[in-house]
Amino acid sequence: MLRSLVNGAFLVGGTAAWSFPAAFVLPFDRGRYTSNVARQWARSVTRLCGVEVRIEGDDQPLNAPAYLVMSKHSSHFDLLGIFAKMPIDMRPVAKRELGRIPIFGWVLRAGAAIMIDRGDREKAKASIARAGETIRGGRSVLLFPEGTRSAPDHVAPLKKGPFHLAAEARVPILPVAVIGSAQVLRPHDWRIHPGLISVRVGTPIPTEGYSDDDAGREALRERVAEALEALMQKGHIPA
Fold first, then answer.
1. Could you tell me if 215 and 160 are in contact, meaning their C-beta atoms sit under 8 angstroms apart?
2. What is the pTM of this model?
3. Separation CA 91–CA 143 (nearest Å)
4. pLDDT band at 211 (very low <50, low <70, confident <90, very high)
5. Residue 154, CB half-sphere, CA atoms under 13 Å: how many?
6. In this structure, how many other beta carbons lie within 10 angstroms of the beta carbon of residue 188?
7. How confident is the model over 167-207, as pLDDT tens digits?
8. Looking only at Cα atoms, what is the longest distance across the chain?
9. What does the pLDDT look like over 46-99, one tens digit per residue?
10. Is residue 177 a contact partner of residue 106, using CB atoms and an 8 Å limit?
């Protein structure tokens, strides 16, 4: 219990502390600066909480101008694991509720993330459009296509919105699965446990050849779901 309390303090304090340099670089940002701050934030918080993060699949060439990174989502710690180890600069899509968090949420709303209101269809479309602009500007976008956290042993049905973006932007989709995050921070539980998180990076999925219609987007959605399931089935990287 004491370790969980200390880890909670590390998460809150570390997030608040790293929000200040993020706010400072945002006005001058072209993507790289904010990503570097996010990377240092994630690495420092996971280290302080006794969480080891490993990555697999980062040895493949990731040389496209930008990717649409689609990750399986099981825990709030997924984002920390991804930013701690992913070798590319990314701007995340974040739900509107995160913008209410003091300091951290203000930085997200100021431009560190693309905020999305899932309860307002028109605003959600505008957020997807902003994500498209980010990708066309040469910066990758990270999102969780399930739309919310789901059980760590399977992939929930993927939302349609990300695939409208994928079909329109015509950039490769990079599937990612985060293993072990749900044991570090369980759903509906505030306690943060030391442990191992494995970030698995799949093979990029080209979007060329998929038509920008219902049939094409559905075929692409099925392929991404299969890729995420395959990454999940590999389990943990051996300790």
1. no
2. 0.88
3. 9
4. confident
5. 2
6. 5
7. 888 899 999 999 999 999 887 787 889 999 999 999 999 99
8. 54
9. 999 999 999 999 888 888 999 999 999 999 899 999 999 998 999 998 888 877
10. no
Q: Three-state SS string across the chain, please? A: CHHHHHHHHHHHHHHHHHHHHHHHHHHHCCCHHHHHHHHHHHHHHHHHCCEEEEEECCCCCCCCCCCEEEECCCCCCHHHHHHHHCCCCEEEEEEHHHHHCCCHHHHHHHHHCEEECCCCHHHHHHHHHHHHHHHHCCCEEEECCCCCCCCCCCCCCCCCHHHHHHHHHCCCEEEEEEECHHHHECCCCCCECCEEEEEEECCCECCCCCCCCHHHHHHHHHHHHHHHHHHHHCCCCCC
Alpha carbon 218 to its chain centroid, in Å, reads 22
Return all residues near 65 (Cβ < 8 A) that are at least 6 apart. 138, 171
Separation CA 172–CA 178 (nearest Å): 19
Domains of the chain by range and CATH? 51-94+114-233 (3.40.1130.10)
Show the tokens assigned to 96: 């509107």
